[in-house]
């Protein structure tokens, strides 16, 4: 045994001083928006932890949130407004004062607004204040506004909102407390980052549960799945159809649920060639008709006494035939082309396994039914004693969304859920308020006209329900710069940010005067085709002027996009600002009840930077925009964004925050502005939340008590039931136009595309790029994911997170690699029809053999993000973006569609097809393409060799006070070593 | 060359880590770094933080890798690793200065920075690789089990757990007295058949790992049916059945 110590055990201070002050606010390290407690020591952050009282994260915090200190103190933070001095893209700037910056921006904007407001393209990236920025765009008068949803997950949003009244994404969640079987499609990580993790922990520690992950790659969540289905990318729709096929054949359907709550029994007119073929047969009041199987006649779908037939052909009063929507749906999916045997090879999962999954789902839904002892009354006044639950839940995200067939695939998943009766029931998928909303919800996109000095009549983004809502010229030419809501992408309800730069450069459909962007790294990891995008941003006309005449960009950090701006407006970090996480926008509600939250400044900026929202209000007031400037020209919200959050009313009584409204602060939902509202939020931990009663908690689409409450809160226009759409009449309206009906029809060259893709029932088609390229030449799928510790976050300038991942490799299935003669750590070329990129390989077994993948957005360009030129991110890290084209291969006439879903315009990142080749030995060691380094910014901080964050906090602790410990003794022969210690 | 507590420590504070639900998100590792860089062993220095080889002190690191099961089926494992606060801690007994020690009162293994000479013998002795050398100051650092947090009267009682435990989103980490067979953590270990990491080395680690639950796939036993029985094989027959299905509901 040992001989030391003879001295006493060290006395440890187990109760050291932690912080001088703790302030609550909301995290912004990703889109999850957790509540945090920030411990402060003077003007330094000692520690950031999850707020245990917060409805989103309940005290936990992920790796990103825990690395907030490094984000806040990043050397990549911008310091002061910048005006470009060199060529675009050089990175050469001079610092200017805010007055000059705002005068310049205001001047440019004012000139555009006085001429044609649509010449401003305003796109705001990972903006968490879209209800504000969209409102600003509307008041400016430009229809050319969107955030990043079009290249993120609009397929999930649109498919859900047009089918189920709410969507996956962050707008719904599995019933984590009751679900017994979770089927998760294409989720490596999600916006609901911590709630999903909390939920998976709950699910898996309950006995008798099963978690199935359908994902080509077995990482993260898939790693802890009870069963991993390594499906081939883009084929999930076929898998879902095969499940539906099996359930239909075995009659494992929740008949009552689909009859009562979906449009399954509604009669669809069968009159090929007629202008109303495929639309619902309606009575004189416009109510869809059903066929009552008991009294054997047509009845209104609002007749609650009726016993509507789900199949069969019936005769309408005018003699034409009609069949229930369910009949059409069943007829399609019972076809042998959707039998497990027929799809097994294509999806890479055996027929026996598909059958087994179908049987397991059916077993749990119908043999392990949950009955909650909660009585409730439905929309028609029918009282129910219990809440019946089918405890099969589903969740889906990017792996479904980022394919050009993603809208239909996501709709297929919703139809599967409806057949099982598992939407918003105990154990199923639950809506979060303000959902469910009517399918689709709310207003149509505004912006048919662009009038000088005139606001739009509404918000730029909305939900079209027919051709009349498209933003197109009479000849079909798109009115928006990104071509959203055109015949090419009719339901592009989040815009198409990924096409703006290309279209602005090409002047297709028209050139713009100013591109104004916020918080989106569009010259790098947020764009397809990085080399092309750089060209578009820097290309010049013959007279030497830039093809995109002016670019303003706002960001908190020195991202790759900064050097492409003419004017840079530096934003604050998330700890230095006010924000509202609003019910008008993307709230933080849970299925248990509504919630919203704020950010408050917990630290004062030490740089000459301003919150972007303050800057927008300032510009709005300078421009005299209605709602931002008073008639005398003074600012409507002189106190900036916090003033707006408190006092702005979107409609009377409805403002950005729902909590503590009214003069006395006692109203929630609707009420007059309360001058003390923000203080109320701060006193409550920077959030407001409320809980539904048990009676209101499920079946919300048909629940009298819930619907009344939802209407009172202003979430739905009236308290009527919300019917889910198995069959989408809205889709059929576009299709009829393509078939030659109505006043507004697509141009001839787009008719067949609309006809094929606007099927009123979910369809599957091969992803468009896969169909267009030679499968032998490009035999592999290539997809990306973000690592959990960087998902939806700025990553690389974070000193802690980059120690976890600073270089991405290309992951290949071991067997696939063997066939290619590739071994671990080899350097290879990944070659797409669009280009090639060089990377180092890592082999694994948990990946579909036809698929290669990598971590996204690890690669960084030299000179950006405050990183040293030798950083692995810039030398060995790479982006697949370089080899993804933003355009599909040309049509016969040469025209190239966007590489997007033809229904929603969702960027089809995961449609990429590639081949791989070993590179020459002399090519090893560094990635390609390699871009020139940016010039350093003025007054950029020096690189530091050693970061000793927290050293001061340690020294402050009363280390040896009152210690009875003996002085450390000199221990021969180690004296000299000890002496070497600093 | 340093003594362990003579009769062992009765109280054995430690962690129980559930490998069945750890998703490898790194929350515990980063939150640990965040707390501890300003805590007892401050700072957790980062060398070359924005350069070619960013490399700092971490008390907790997550390893994600694939393993092959008995049925030749591979799985992905996320494996968080920090000091296991062994009963028979070789990092303590190897220490030539008495810097490495195991606390009598709760079994936490700590380094007395004033005595550490940075000889690294402890990191050679630790089979788990759980020691972290701070080359900036030439001192060995390691997981303190948040000794400056778990007893800290300046924090609310609910926060007096290690940072990794309080932040873990899936709830894969539990903290408590593994010397008390009736503690929640001991019961959890008993119920889930928690195991010692590399038990054959006989270091008697305090921390325990809970194994992943058996897979549920085509190769494993399930109480659920493996296929459904069609009620009709022909489409027309099915559609005919459903015309008045509503009457039987």
TrEMBL record, chain A:
Family membership: Belongs to the prokaryotic molybdopterin-containing oxidoreductase family.
Keywords: 4Fe-4S, Iron, Iron-sulfur, Metal-binding, Oxidoreductase
Protein's recorded name: Formate dehydrogenase
InterPro entries (alphabetical): Asp_de-COase-like_dom_sf (IPR009010), MoPterin_dinucl-bd_dom (IPR006657), Mopterin_OxRdtase (IPR006656), Mopterin_OxRdtase_4Fe-4S_dom (IPR006963)
One of the record's GO molecular function terms: metal ion binding
Compartment(s) where it occurs, according to its Swiss-Prot or TrEMBL record: Cell envelope
Region (Disordered): 441-468, 653-675, 949-982
Automatic annotation (TrEMBL), chain B:
Family matches, as Pfam families: Fer4_11
Tagged with keyword Iron-sulfur: yes
The keyword Ribonucleoprotein belongs to this UniProt entry's keyword annotation: no
Top-level taxon: Bacteria
Gene Ontology terms, MF aspect: 4 iron, 4 sulfur cluster binding; metal ion binding
The entry's keywords: 4Fe-4S, Iron, Iron-sulfur, Metal-binding
Chain segments carrying region Disordered: 206-235
Domain 4Fe-4S ferredoxin-type: 13-32, 74-105, 107-136
Protein name: Ferredoxin
Organism: Kiloniella spongiae
């Amino acid at each position: 045994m040992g001989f030391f110590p003879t001295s006493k055990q060290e006395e440890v201070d187990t109760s050291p001083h932690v912080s001088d002050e703790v302030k609550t606010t909301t995290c912004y390290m990703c889109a999850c928006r957790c509540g945090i407690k920030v411990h402060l020591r003077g003007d330094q952050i000692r520690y950031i932890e999850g707020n245990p009282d917060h409805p989103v994260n309940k005290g936990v915090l992920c790796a990103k949130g825990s690395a907030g200190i490094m984000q806040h103190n990043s050397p990549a933070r911008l310091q002061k407004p910048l005006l470009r001095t060199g060529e675009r893209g050089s990175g050469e700037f001079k610092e200017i004062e805010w007055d000059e910056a705002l005068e310049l921006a205001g001047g440019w904007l004012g000139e555009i607004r006085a001429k044609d407001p649509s010449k401003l393209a305003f796109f705001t990236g990972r903006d968490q204040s879209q209800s504000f920025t969209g409102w600003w765009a509307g008041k400016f008068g430009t229809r050319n506004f969107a955030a990043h949803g079009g290249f993120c997950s609009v397929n999930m949003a649109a498919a859900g909102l047009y089918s189920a009244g709410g969507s996956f994404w962050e707008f719904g969640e599995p019933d984590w407390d009751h679900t017994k079987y979770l089927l998760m499609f294409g989720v490596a990580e999600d916006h609901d980052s911590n709630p999903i993790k909390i939920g998976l922990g709950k699910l898996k520690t309950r006995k008798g549960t099963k978690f199935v992950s359908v994902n080509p790659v077995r990482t993260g969540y898939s790693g802890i799945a009870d069963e991993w289905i390594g499906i081939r990318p883009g084929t999930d729709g076929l898998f879902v159809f095969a499940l539906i096929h099996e359930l239909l054949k075995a009659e494992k359907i929740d008949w009552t649920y689909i009859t009562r709550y979906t449009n399954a029994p509604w009669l669809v007119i069968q009159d090929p060639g007629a202008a109303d073929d495929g639309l619902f047969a309606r009575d004189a009041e416009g109510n869809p008709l059903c066929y009552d199987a008991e009294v054997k006649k047509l009845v209104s779908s609002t007749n609650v006494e009726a016993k509507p037939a789900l199949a069969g052909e019936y005769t309408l009063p005018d003699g034409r035939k009609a069949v229930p929507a369910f009949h059409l749906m069943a007829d399609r999916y019972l076809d042998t082309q959707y039998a497990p045997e027929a799809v097994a090879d294509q999806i890479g999962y055996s027929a026996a396994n598909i059958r087994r999954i179908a049987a397991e789902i059916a077993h749990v839904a119908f043999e392990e039914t949950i009955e909650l002892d909660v009585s409730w009354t439905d929309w028609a006044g029918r009282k129910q004693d219990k809440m019946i639950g089918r405890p099969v839940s589903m969740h889906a995200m990017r792996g479904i969304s980022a394919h050009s067939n993603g809208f239909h695939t996501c709709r297929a998943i919703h139809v599967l859920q409806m057949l099982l009766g598992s939407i918003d029931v105990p154990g199923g998928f639950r809506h979060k308020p303000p959902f469910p909303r009517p399918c689709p919800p709310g207003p149509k996109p505004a912006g048919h006209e662009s009038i000088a000095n005139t606001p739009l009549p509404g918000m730029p983004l909305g939900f079209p329900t027919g051709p009349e809502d498209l933003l197109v010229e009479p000849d079909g030419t798109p009115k928006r710069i990104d071509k959203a809501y055109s015949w090419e992408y009719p339901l592009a309800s989040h815009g198409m940010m990924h096409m703006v730069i290309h279209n602005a450069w090409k002047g297709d459909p028209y050139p713009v005067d100013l591109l104004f962007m916020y918080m989106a790294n569009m010259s790098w990891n947020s764009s397809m085709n990085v080399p092309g995008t750089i060209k578009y941003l820097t290309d010049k006309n013959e007279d030497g002027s830039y093809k995109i005449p002016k670019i303003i960009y706002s960001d908190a950090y020195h991202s790759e996009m900064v050097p492409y701006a003419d004017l840079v407006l530096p934003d604050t970090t998330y700890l230095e600002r006010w924000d509202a996480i609003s019910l008008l926008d993307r709230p933080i509600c849970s299925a248990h009840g509504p919630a919203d939250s704020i950010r408050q400044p917990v630290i004062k900026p030490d740089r000459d930077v301003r919150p972007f929202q303050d800057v927008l209000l300032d510009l709005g007031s300078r421009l005299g925009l209605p709602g931002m400037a008073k008639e005398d020209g003074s600012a409507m919200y002189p106190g900036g964004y916090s003033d707006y959050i408190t006092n702005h009313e979107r409609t009377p009584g409805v403002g950005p925050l729902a909590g503590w409204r009214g003069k006395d602060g006692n109203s929630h939902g609707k009420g007059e502005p309360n001058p003390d509202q923000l203080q109320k939020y701060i006193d409550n931990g920077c959030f407001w939340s409320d809980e539904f009663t048990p009676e209101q908690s499920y079946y919300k689409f048909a629940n009298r008590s819930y619907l009344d409450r939802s209407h009172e809160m202003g979430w739905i226009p009236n308290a009527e039931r919300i019917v889910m759409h198995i069959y989408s009449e809205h889709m059929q309206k576009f299709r009829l136009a393509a078939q030659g009906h109505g006043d507004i029809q697509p141009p001839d060259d787009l008719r067949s595309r609309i006809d094929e893709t606007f099927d009123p029932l979910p369809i599957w088609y091969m992803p468009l790029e896969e169909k267009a390229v030679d499968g032998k030449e490009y035999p592999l799928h290539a997809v990306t994911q973000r690592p959990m510790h960087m998902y939806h976050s700025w990553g690389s300038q974070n000193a802690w997170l980059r120690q976890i991942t600073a270089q991405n490799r290309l992951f290949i299935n071991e067997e696939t690699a063997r066939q290619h003669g590739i071994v671990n750590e080899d350097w290879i070329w990944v070659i797409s029809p669009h280009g090639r990129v060089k990377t180092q390989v890592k082999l694994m077994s948990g990946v579909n053999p036809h698929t290669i993948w990598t971590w996204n957005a690890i690669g960084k360009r030299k000179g950006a993000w405050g990183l040293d030129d030798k950083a692995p991110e810039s030398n060995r890290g790479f982006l697949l973006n370089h080899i993804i084209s933003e355009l599909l291969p040309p049509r016969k006439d040469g025209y190239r569609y966007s590489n997007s879903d033809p229904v929603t315009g969702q960027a089809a990142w995961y449609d990429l097809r590639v081949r791989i080749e070993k590179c020459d030995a002399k090519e090893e060691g560094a990635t390609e393409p390699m871009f020139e380094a940016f010039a350093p910014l003025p007054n950029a901080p020096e690189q530091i060799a050693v970061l000793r964050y927290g050293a001061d906090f340690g020294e402050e602790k009363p280390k040896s006070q009152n210690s009875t410990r003996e002085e450390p003794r000199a221990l021969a022969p180690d004296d000299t070593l000890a002496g070497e210690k600093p | 060359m340093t003594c362990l507590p003579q009769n062992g420590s009765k109280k054995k504070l430690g962690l129980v880590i559930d490998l069945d639900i750890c998703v490898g998100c790194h929350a515990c590792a980063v939150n640990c770094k965040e707390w501890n860089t300003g805590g007892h062993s401050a700072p957790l220095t980062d060398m070359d933080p924005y350069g070619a080889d960013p490399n700092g002190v971490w008390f907790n690191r997550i390893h994600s890798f694939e393993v092959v099961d008995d049925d030749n089926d591979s799985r992905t494992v996320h494996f968080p690793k920090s000091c296991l606060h062994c009963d028979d801690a070789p990092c303590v007994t190897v220490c030539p200065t008495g810097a490495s020690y195991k606390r009598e009162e709760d079994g936490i293994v700590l380094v007395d920075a004033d005595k550490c000479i940075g000889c690294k013998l402890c990191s050679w002795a630790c089979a788990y690789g759980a020691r972290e050398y701070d080359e900036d100051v030439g001192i060995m650092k390691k997981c303190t089990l948040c000794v400056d947090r778990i007893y800290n009267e300046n924090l609310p009682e609910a926060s007096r757990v290690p940072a990794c435990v309080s932040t873990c989103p899936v709830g894969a980490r539990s903290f408590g007295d593994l010397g008390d067979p009736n503690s929640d953590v001991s019961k959890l270990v008993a119920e889930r058949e928690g195991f010692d990491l590399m038990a054959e080395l006989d270091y008697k680690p305090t921390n325990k790992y809970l194994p992943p639950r058996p897979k549920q796939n085509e190769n494993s036993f399930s109480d659920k049916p493996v296929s459904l029985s069609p009620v009709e094989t022909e489409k027309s027959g099915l559609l005919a059945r459903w015309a008045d299905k509503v009457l039987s509901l």
